Amino acid sequence: MKLEHIQIQTSNIKETAAFYQDILRLLIIENDSESITIKVGNSILKFIENPQFKSIYHFAFNIPTNKLDKAIEWCKDKVDLITIEDQNVITHFENWNAHAVYFYDNNGNLLEFIARHDLNNAQTEEFSSKSILNISEIGIVNENPLELGNQLIAEHDLSFFSKNNNSEVFAAIGDDEGLLILVRPNRNWYPTQTPSESNKTEIVLKNNENIIELKF
């Protein structure tokens, strides 16, 4: 499953454009007074301005399986990586066979670089913004994650992520290429103390050559 296009909100388009263009060095493909559209590898990330918006999103970017250490070095003069424990910034998701680091954007959104070792995507080039492969996760907040997951599976021929222990509190739809992370409201976004909130999100995903449009 591939997350082709994600549309979310920001309270400040100008600051968001500056962060993604000047800090993360990503390509802006459309920019006006009310929205900004950014190319993130094979995915598109679009922000719509809402001056009253005060919440945050969580989303992740896939990076090459062999480039997490280089990504950490690349981040040093750009963003502050979130410390997990004992000055360590790396999380090992054993069941998912992945390692990840976390940081914030200008909006306070929780961003993640994740290296998934079951994907054949190693690179020899130096790590740069061009190494960011795609949007690999988007968090969706719902009172009944498992019920929502089963509904999406029935309506769109999707499937639960086989590596995840899906539950009524936390569930994942998709695969290593792309995941919908379904959580209950007020569950802290790992590894922070920031509670999850339901926010307007639009998604275009591709699954088995089928294009699926979702609005939450």
From TrEMBL:
Residues 2-116 form the VOC domain. InterPro entries: Glyas_Bleomycin-R_OHBP_Dase, VOC_core. PROSITE patterns: VOC (PS51819). SUPFAM superfamilies: Glyoxalase/Bleomycin resistance protein/Dihydroxybiphenyl dioxygenase. This is VOC domain-containing protein. It comes from Flavobacterium panici.
